[in-house]
Design brief:
Blueprint lengths: L14 H4 L5 H14 L5 E2 L11 H13 L11 H15 L8 E4 L2 H12 L5 E6 L3 H9 L3 E6 L10 H7 L4 E7 L11 H12 L5 E5 L15 H4 L7 E6 L12 E4 L2 H12 L7 H12 L3 H21 L15 E5 L17 H12 L1 E2 L1 E2 L8 E5 L4 H16 L3
Length: 409
């Protein structure tokens, strides 16, 4: 380097991403999979992804689209045919009517959320997140210069937000409330009767919009009827964005199609954001999603029954483990069990378990089971298991977890 050469400055990330990392769930899953590749018999119960294949009729629809040459750009936020399929879905499943210009289609439900917050949040605006919450919620809020406001919803209240908590959390800066039912990570779901008091609070605070994340709508157990805020309280329609997608119910995580329906002004602003990021979703994925939403629906109920059998097994097994307690989730494919009873104990190697992260690390290192600590979701001391895997894997994993708890001193 010559005397007149200036040394390059080290890269400095933008302020909005400095405190945010890659999803902790993905990090844990990647680490566990690396151990598997190294030859260790690790069972990974971290990913929120159905283990079923995409239905055959959906795959065939994609192949037909390729054969027709449907490989070009579509309309920015979803083809007319895709929006019509979403329109049909909302009317059929939720008795909700949306015009095509009240619907947005994106590359996954996560992008719908990002578009909505990027289009609506100003610096310092607050977003209420009932905890436990999906980890990406808080990170997306922060990237969009908002302030996540976590409200602890413990197992004693079924991991559900109540009206008094909501009222106390609202301030003049509150812009959004997130409702995810059934929930990732807890599996908790709201009935219409449980949503009604929350809606009554919201009616008194017209500045607060509602983001209803219904992505697990069709994975609901024990005959519980699905409920979504705008169907429970139609007066909230003009400030509610209802989000869903094909990833979970139809095992289409890799196809990347999500959608939302809400007020025209919001949908138009979201389209502006999408126009400068991904543009339209994949044309082939849209063709597949149209078939998923409009084709035969029997497979959805069949797979839900399989998930319920797995849920029942995992909950029973965890409640046999010394020091663990697991409530029965109403939906999704996760358990969110308390590990408070094992904290303060020591492993056979002498390590003291002080946090849920310590417990999860112990399970992975000593018993080769990968789960996610509740602190990642904003509520400790719990841990999440995804039971979207085979019963054989779940049986072995739960046996290891019971043994791990029994081995603590």
């Amino acid at each position: 380097m010559t005397a007149d050469t200036v040394a390059p400055l080290a890269f400095q990330p933008a302020q909005r991403v400095r405190a945010i990392g890659v999803s902790e769930i993905l990090r844990i899953t990647d680490h566990a999979n690396a151990l598997k590749r190294a030859g260790r018999p690790v069972i990974v119960l971290g990913a929120g992804e159905p283990d079923f294949d995409t239905p055959q009729n959906v795959r065939e629809a994609a192949v037909r689209a390729i054969g027709r040459g449907d490989t070009r750009y579509t309309v920015l936020d979803g083809s007319p045919a895709m929006k019509a399929a979403v329109q049909l879905k909302f009317k059929r499943d939720n008795a909700l009517d949306f015009a095509l210009d009240e619907i947005s289609v994106s590359a996954g439900a996560k992008q719908v959320i990002f578009n909505a917050l990027m289009a609506s949040l100003n610096p310092g605006d607050e977003v209420i997140l009932p905890a436990p919450y999906w980890t990406s919620y808080a990170d997306i809020v922060q990237i969009c210069c908002g302030v996540p406001v976590a409200v602890a919803c413990t197992g004693e209240n079924g991991f559900r937000l109540d009206a008094a908590q909501l009222e106390a959390a609202i301030t003049p800066r509150t812009r959004w409330l997130f409702i995810n039912s059934p929930s990732n990570p807890s599996g908790a779901a709201y009935s219409a009767a449980q949503l009604k008091p929350l809606c009554e609070v919201l009616l008194r605070h017209p500045q607060v919009w509602v983001l209803a994340d219904d992505i697990y709508e069709h994975i609901l157990y024990d005959g519980l009827a699905f409920a979504t805020p705008v169907a429970v309280e139609p007066r909230l329609r003009e400030r509610t964005l209802t989000i869903n997608g094909v990833s979970k119910a139809y095992a289409m995580t890799g196809w990347r199609v999500g959608y939302g329906a809400g007020p025209r002004a919001l949908i138009a602003a979201m389209a502006v954001v999408q126009s400068q990021t991904t543009s339209c979703p994949s044309s082939i994925s849209q063709a597949a999603a149209i078939e998923a939403l409009t084709g035969p629906q029997d497979i959805v109920a069949e797979r839900c029954a399989d998930f319920q059998a797995r849920r029942d097994f995992v909950v029973a097994a965890l409640n046999r483990a010394p020091g663990l307690h697991c409530r029965v989730p109403e939906g999704a494919f996760y358990t969110f069990a308390s590990c408070a009873g094992v904290l303060g104990k020591r492993t056979r190697g002498g390590a003291l378990l002080q946090t849920d992260s310590d417990f999860c690390r112990y399970l992975l290192q000593d018993f080769e089971v990968a789960v996610v600590p509740g602190s990642v979701f904003g509520l400790a001391p719990y841990f999440r298991i995804s039971y979207a895997t085979s019963m054989a894997q779940l049986e072995e994993a739960c046996a290891r977890i019971i043994a791990a708890c029994a081995a603590l001193e």
